[in-house]
Amino acid sequence: SRIPKESLAPSKINQADFPPCIQKLLADLVHSVNVPHLGRVALAIYLIKAGLGDEQISALFSAAPDYDPDTTRYQVEYARKKGYSMPSCATMDSWGVCVAQCRCFSPLKFRQAIHGKYAQASLSETAKTDDKILKKDL
Fold it and tell me: Is the pTM for the entire model greater than 0.90?
């Protein structure tokens, strides 16, 4: 007998409200950049909390250079079953996956209307600093 496919629940978090760290992790996956393990864990937890189903989440990881459908499905299901908490921004920073100072304390609390201006300001400052470093190296 065939097992019915999981119904795909609508997202509880609007994609426009995904924080810069989550947007970067997703963009890296789409472009087949090898996202570090802890980045993948954080992304999976965030997407579970955002209301995506296991099949949707697994499909997002399919562009990873070392993608294995069985391993990915197992790890996503395991994270859901264990009910892991979303890592705080401080933890995300220590893992090297924080890309902006949003002042939201947790990626789950990020809202574009509230924290977006802080994120944009810090991203702009980072870009200016990167430009100065590049110009100095040339």
Answer: no
CB 80 within 8 A of CB 54: yes
Residues in contact with 67: Cβ distance below 8 Å, sequence separation at least 6, in sequence order: 61
Our CA angle for 77, 46, 13, nearest 5°, is: 115
Q: Is 113 helix (H, G, I), strand (E, B) or coil?
A: helix
The Cα 60–Cα 54 span in angstroms is 10
47/21 Cα distance (integer angstroms): 13
Q: In this structure, how many other beta carbons lie within 10 angstroms of the beta carbon of residue 43?
A: 23
Per residue in 67-102, pLDDT (tens digit) is 999 999 999 999 999 999 999 999 999 999 999 888
